[in-house]
Amino acid sequence: MDAAENAELWAFLSSRRDGEIMSGRIASIESFGVFVALDDGPDHPVFPGVGFITIPELSWRHLERVSDVVRVGQHVSCVFLQFDTTNGEARLSLRGTRPDPFRTFAENTAVGQTLQGQVTKLVPFGAFVQVTEDIEGLVHLRELAWTDVEAPQEVVRVGDRLAVVVTEVDPERRRLVLSRRQALPRSRAGRT
Q1: Which of 14, 98, 136, 159 is the most buried (most CB within 10 A)?
Q2: Residue 117, in any domain of the structure
Q3: How many structural domains are present in the chain?
Q4: Secondary structure class of 119 (helix, strand, coil)
Q5: What is the extent of the structural domain holding 141?
Q6: What's 124's DSSP letter?
Q7: Residues 23 and 9 in one domain
Q8: Tens digits of pLDDT across the chain (192 residues)
């Protein structure tokens, strides 16, 4: 029997409302998300739980491992996002139960402000710099130094601590753009 043929499951899921808080136990952790056995929900005929949390909905932070946020058997409260009629499950958000740290950061950070941060990742187009426990921003290649740079590793390495200037804060897109170059005196073009 699939989910569409399960009247009890269908009635339960179709009566849920966006934003409703639901609680349950983490039933299974998969590479694509987490199944939740809901406290007041029926069993799912196929999946280990009626609730499902995609990886991005687990945390406001970028995750290396799901186990950094949840573990099997853990009791959680989540926000109901939608009834996934294809899979017959409740799409949930764990991060929706917590304030967005980027919004708070954006309210307290201005363009032109200098911040201290640590390089967390190098990519062909620049470097990501963590400026708070929860917030990373991008320093584009052209903003790494006053001279032309072809690869970020020419001027910075993962783990380097450096000063950066905020050039854009976009709370809607959760985007932070930074400049290392603007934090450097013009005479200092290369590595620090």
Answers
A1: 136
A2: yes
A3: 2
A4: strand
A5: 101-183
A6: T
A7: yes
A8: 466 678 899 999 999 999 999 999 999 999 899 999 999 889 888 888 899 999 999 998 877 788 889 999 999 999 999 999 999 999 999 999 999 999 999 999 999 999 999 999 999 999 999 999 889 999 999 999 999 999 999 999 999 999 999 999 999 999 999 999 999 987 554 554
- CATH code (residue 168): 2.40.50.140
Query: Considering only CA atoms, which of 128, 49, 124 is closest in space to residue 84?
Result: 49
CA atoms within 13 A on the CB side of 20: 16
Whether 60 and 106 share a structural domain = no
Is 191 within the bounds of a domain? no
d(CA 153, CA 124): 9
95-132: burial string, b at 16+ Cβ within 10 Å, e else: bbeeeeebeebbeebeeeeebebebeeeeeebbbbebe
CA distance 183 to 145: 9
Total residues found in the chain within this entry: 192
User: Is 86 contained in some domain?
Assistant: yes
